[in-house]
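Rather than argue in generalities, we have chosen a single entry, letters for residues, whole numbers for local backbone shapes, without further comment.
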Amino acid sequence: MPDIIEQDAEAIAKATYLHHLVGKSILITGATGLIGTYLCATLRACGTPFHAPMFDMCDLDAVGRLDMFDIIIHGAGYG
């Protein structure tokens, strides 16, 4: 990960209260995109665990397993 993203994420983590996410099961879609990269880096800087699996959202078996997460941040899309 480029240093600038890590530096930005650390600054965001210090300025943002994300401690209410601790202990939650978080799924992030679109984790490899621009916003997803920053979001993952920020959560990592806060020490908040998350999942960023790569699966097809049209796969009904995969979608059926989404109920195991407390929070889903959907950032995936087509550009």
